[in-house]
Amino acid sequence: MSDDNQPVASKAKRGVKPSGKPTLKTIAQMTGFAVTTISRALNNAPELAQETRDRVQKIAAEIGYLPDRAALRLKTGRTNVIALVLEPDEQIYGFGSNIVSGLTETLRNTAYHVVITPLFRNVLPIEPVRHIVRNRMADGVIFSKAETFDERVRFLLDNDFPFISHGRTHWPEPHPYVDFDNEAYAYGAVKRLVEKGCRKISIVLPDSELTYTEHLKKGVARAAGEAGIAFEFAADINLSSPTDAIRNYVIKRSKRPDGPDGYVCASEVSALAVIGGLNDSGKTVGQDVHVVSKQSSMMFAQFQPGAETVSEDFVGAGRQLGALLLRRIAGEPLEDLHTLVQPSFDWKS
Questions:
Q1: What is the pTM of this model?
Q2: Which residues of 139-157 are buried (b: 16+ CB within 10 A; e: fewer)?
Q3: Can you point out the beta strands (E) in the chain?
Q4: What is the CATH number of domain 76-180+315-341?
Q5: pLDDT per residue as tens, the chain (349 positions)
Q6: What is the DSSP letter of 192?
Q7: Is residue 178 within 8 Å of 320, Cβ to Cβ?
Q8: Which of 36, 79, 94, 258 sits most deeply, having the most CB atoms within 10 A of its CB?
């Protein structure tokens, strides 16, 4: 008997992939299980033995099986897709890759897959979200940089579409989110700078539309007011400015007699620019001027001489975003689906 006339199961045993696009029926022929069992195994049905699930998923991976999203959507109304909307610079600065890492950890033993939807600079943030919802391209959406009255949140709430944002809004209705307590961070950072003897604090803020800009401003103002010191919000630049612009701003401010002697940094990239500007102006970080920054990667630790840091865990945020979104997709109420991560201050001395 020729190879082509042998049963598919015989070919599978010898590691030969069947020709044509693999289907559930293909895997059923290779394993001897019913098609319904294959489907349940691929969806990690808990009533099936782990050995069965592992065997089916291993063979599916070996033969390159991919579910037919269109057929799945027609049959169940689900796509088993989570759409993560990211701007290109979020990938460059490591935020995106860390979020994806945590998110995929959460989704690993589920039927869901992550699809990254890019948000380009010349496109309104609402557009990719509208496209996903109107075309039912995903079962849930994740996005970042939440604005105070974010129209993405309004649109998704109005359409009862599962989502979660990285960051909060001021809409009166509850909505799912994971956020870092930036007011607490800024408050703690200024208190630390006061301990170091600083009498004037500066911070480079995010875009004014973003909710966490308001949180940072409140934290700085509250701590500075309690300590009786001066503070300022850097003018004409923000976290989206080119690093050279931030660096040049710091150089110019350092040359003036009323220049700040303490800086709070809301991102690693801005911190490196601030430190570079201070060094270029002849200041020694940790002596003449002090810097406190968020830290979200080990790389920053190699280039922040003299600065003190507070960790913001984007991998952990990705895990939480995935877990809460799955709960929302399962039908849990909106008001129970949010997490506000508190900063941990572990100063050296």
A1: 0.79
A2: bbbbbbbbbbebebbeebe
A3: 81-86, 113-118, 140-144, 163-166, 177-180, 200-204, 230-233, 262-265, 290-295, 308-311, 338-341
A4: 3.40.50.2300
A5: 333 333 334 344 444 444 567 888 888 888 889 888 888 887 777 788 888 888 988 888 888 776 665 555 545 557 889 999 998 765 545 688 899 999 999 998 888 989 999 888 788 999 999 999 998 889 999 999 999 999 999 999 999 999 999 999 999 999 999 999 999 999 999 999 999 999 999 999 999 999 999 999 999 999 999 999 999 999 999 999 999 999 999 999 999 999 999 999 999 999 999 999 999 999 999 999 999 999 988 777 777 678 999 999 999 999 999 999 999 999 999 999 999 999 999 887 7
A6: H
A7: yes
A8: 79
Phi and psi, residue 242, nearest 5°: -55, 145
Instruction: Specify the amino acid at residue 88.
Output: P
Residue 272 in tokens: 């490196």
CATH fold for domain 182-311: Rossmann fold (3.40.50)
Side chain identity at 35, as an amino acid letter?
Answer: V
In angstroms, the CA 78 to CA 81 distance is: 8
